[in-house]
Amino acid sequence: MRLWSGLARRTVAFSVLLGLLTTTVVAYFFFRRGSEAGIRSTTHFLSSALRATYVPQCQAAPAGWSFTLPEGLHLVAFDASQVLAPGWTAAPDTGPDPSLVARLAAGEEQPIILYFPLFEGKRWGGAVLMRGAESGPCSLIECRWPVTTVRLYGLRWMLLAAVIVASLGAALSTTSVIRPLLRRLRRLHRAAGQLGGSSYASTEDKLPDELGELSRVLDTAHARVVADAARIEEQKHALERFLSDVAHDLKTPIASLQLSLELAATAPSEEVSGLLVQGIEDTVYLTSLVDNLRLACQLGEGVDPLAGDPRAELGAIVQRVTRRLSLLARRKELTLEAAYPDAALWVRCNPTMLEQAVSNLLHNAITHGHRGGHVVAVLEAVGAERFRLTVLDDGPGVTPEELERLGERLFRSSQARRRDPRGSGLGVAIVRELGRRVGLEVAFVPNAPHGLKVIIEGPCAPG
């Protein structure tokens, strides 16, 4: 309502002032031109009558003759030789109008001028300068006429009509322009206040102007806010589930590690070795889980594995990971072997992230393998510009239905959960996500007659 009151008040005031100004200016020029044209058309007749009646009186009178008619016309005689002489100046309120003298000197036969006392401060309504005689003190006669009440009365009516017309125009513009504009603004204000909420209602303003464009921008912003809110809510629930799973996965190895250490502190010497082996396995699992959590957070925050154009030598990574996990494989009575070419195979990827991905694959194969089984990592060149890394195990493998879901965040097969309650499915998901980020192909296929084969293939990079 404040906007409506301010706009309406300003619109009315400005329209009235503009109407008055326009009407006054137009009336001034047209009235002046029209009056001059009317007076000019009767000047010849008037000048003949004045010369025939009053010039003889003027010539018979002493110098400085003047005469006022009953109708208010005032006649003043002047000597043309003096008035038109160079350097002549008119006396205030006595001499002829200088502008009329200048026009007469320029060749105009009977110059006429109209005065507007309201604006010019004159006490006459107008004047005309005409020739009275060939020479002498009556050679120029200036006829002045007073301001008539008819002109003032007409001027008042003209101004009153201007006020009325301007007020009607202001009212019409307020009704036809300001009110619909404010109605649209109120709808936009209401929609903006409900932006992103369930009660949001589009203004559906289809007009091709700035307010219509603003309405469409609000609709787009509302859709984006709703989509972002839904995505954030989904991420929140996913994070809660993830933290719950991680807390569960941490609880089991920590409790197992604590129990192994407590038993080792009081157990006979022949049992300490087995308890320490169990503690080592739990420690390796915790280390791997923490590294995966850190890497998952980095990928989730948008850290680019290719930032700075990094290089990683894949053969050295396979060698380090195999050496680091060999003790765990022996404790689980598995054979861990690796084969890689003598020539270096370079890959465009962050070395730490790539090493964690390779470690995840080998660690999963060892964790889910059978006693007496085998885990093999084979790195080979495919042509001159590509490589292939294959990780094989002869464990129980996964069903065809579960094979398609390997690599999904937090997914673990039912057999994997029965064999080892620890784990969150995060390691394999990181392998797939990292491969997607750096342009590597990751495939999970059965390893006949039983087991799992993971194949990572991609382009080599210059060292």
Automatic annotation (TrEMBL):
EC number: 2.7.13.3
Name of a matching Pfam family: HATPase_c
Every Histidine kinase domain range: 245-462
GO molecular function: kinase activity
InterPro entries documented for this protein: HATPase_C_sf, HATPase_dom, His_kinase_dom, HisK_dim/P_dom, HisK_dim/P_sf, TCS_sensor_his_kinase
Reaction(s) the record says it catalyses: ATP + protein L-histidine = ADP + protein N-phospho-L-histidine
Domain of life: Bacteria
The protein, known as: histidine kinase
Species whose genome carries this gene: Hyalangium rubrum
